Amino acid sequence: MHELGVTFYVVRDVKKVAEENNVKKIDYVTLEIGEVSGVIHDQLVDCWNWARKKEAVTEHAKIYIETLKAITYCEDCKGQYRTIDYGKTCPYCHSEHTYLLKGNEFNIKEIGIYEDRGT
Asked: According to the UniProt entry, where is the signal peptide (predicted)?
C-alpha cells in the first residue's frame, strides 16, 4: 500500500509550509490526483485520517481529492482522447503511437488555514 507513504509525504510537506508561514493549524488539504496515478482514493483518505493525527498542525485537517482526467495524445492523427475509455490505442486512427498527456499527477493544490473566529 503506497498510499501510506504518499500520505506521510503530504503531511510532511503541509507541515513544512505551515512552519514557513507561521501557521499553527491546518483546516483542510486539497489534492489533485490523476485518474491513472495508481492512487486508491479510499485508502488514501483512510491513511490521511490516521497520519494527520501524528502532527498537531494537521491533527483535525480534512482532506479533499479532485480527480484529474487522463488524456492521451496520438502522434499519428494528432487527436486527443480519454485514456480510461480507450487505453493506448487511438479511437480515431487505431494507432498505438500514443502517449499520456495528463492524468498521472499527484499535487497538493490547496492548504486551508484554520481561522479561529471566536464566539
From this structure: none
Instruction: Give the span between the Cα atoms of 25 and 48, in whole angstroms.
Output: 16
> Comparing 12-21, 89-98, 107-116, which segment has the lowest mean pLDDT?
107-116
- Name the helix (H) or strand (E) containing 94: none
Joined grid coordinates for residue 46? 483512510
Please give the DSSP secondary-structure letter assigned to residue 114: P
Q: Does domain 2-69+102-113 have CATH number 3.30.2320.80?
A: yes
Asked if 16 contacts 23 with a C-beta cutoff of 8 angstroms, the reply is no
Has residue 1 got a pLDDT over 90? no
The DSSP symbol for 81 reads E
pTM over 0.85: yes
Q: SS3 for 104?
A: coil
Q: Give the separation between CA 20 and CA 13, rounded to whole angstroms.
A: 11
- Domain layout of the chain by residue ranges: 2-69+102-113
Q: What is the pLDDT of residue 114?
A: 84
